[in-house]
Amino acid sequence: MSSQTLLERLGLEPFRPRPPWWGPDLQTLRDTLRPDVLPACASTPLALPLGPSRQGRDGSLLAWLDPPAADAPSGRPRALVLLLHGLGGSSQAEGVRRLGWCLNRAGFAVLRLNMRGAGDGRALASGTYAARCSSDLAPALGRARELAADRPLLAVGLSLGGTVLLNAVLDGVAQLEGLALVSSPLDLAHCSATISRPRNLLYERWLLERLRQQTLNDGLRPDAELVERLRRVDSIRGFDALITAPRWGYPSVDAYYRQASPLPRLLVPEPGQPPLPPTLIVQALDDPWVPAAGALALGPPLEVVISPGGGHNGFHAPGGCWSDQLVLRWLEQRLGSRVC
Asked: Which residue in 331, 337, 340 sits closest to 100, CA to CA?
């Protein structure tokens, strides 16, 4: 099914940028430069169980459970949607909160989950997360299934959060009725090389600074030598070689990128690999961080929407965020609801 056909099925026009956010970089940076003013939500903090890790003490993952909005169509949640943030982000990230509010208004309960070491959940468990951290998420995903009760459990991942959720499904630790990914890396080596291009120097420095601070404050108390090496790291690949790969038991950064990239398992399923739930992949051709080649290589049964523009997790259009509406309408159809 082509992107245009899927959009027509959902009653959505192709993406058009909202002035003055023209081009991939302004689309990518808009949430940082001009964040939306979102209404307060009656969120409930939850400490979800965390799987055992070689990184340090076991603990919990912090999540925020957001009920449907007071003016939602139905008083009872139609489904529970787990939202997962991207690299260097948290459950409080602008894109996560805005999409959550969009879903709340449509009658969905939303569970905004922080991965290990992210956001306000940093104090609950030591260490850091990775693109394939299914052992970490397995207990939390089981708890999410319990919270959903007799309602469907759906999931949406933004950027690296989508990669993490897709790997969790492929690893058999997530049983979902639907999964949507927006601007998510499918080939980590290609993505790492892309973010290190000269045009992306400021992006990479910004991401690295967030990752450094997250690592220095993660409770593992790195020794002086590691701290100095961490301060000298000048690329995402260098950070993954120094921190991510060894902490997660990979012999090298190349092994990490190869084994944690979901694209090979999507193209050639491994023996005994669990079937995917209905899955939506949204990708912009002009994404400055995540190359579109991985999404372009995919087809049925995955539903793939390729947009000429939108930047990285941007898609800021007249009337609001286009990808938020796309995800909402797609989830609506997963429930057999009328698209409105």
From this structure: 331
* CB-based burial label for 224 (10 Å; 0-12, 13-18, 19+): exposed
Backbone conformation region of residue 127, classed left if phi is above 0, alpha if psi is from -120 to 50, else beta: left
Could you say which of 3.30.450.20, 3.30.70.260, 3.40.50.1820, 3.40.50.300 is the CATH number of the domain covering 3-185+260-334? 3.40.50.1820
- Bridge partners of residue 82, in order along the sequence: 111, 155
Amino acid in position 306: I
Span 133-181, pLDDT tens digits: 999 999 999 999 999 999 999 999 999 999 999 999 999 999 999 999 9
Round to whole Å and give the CA distance between 221 and 114: 21
- Closest CA relative to residue 119, chosen from 96, 139, 98, 138: 96
The H or E element spanning position 228 is: helix 224-232
What whole-number distance in Å separates Cα of residue 214 and Cα of residue 122?
8
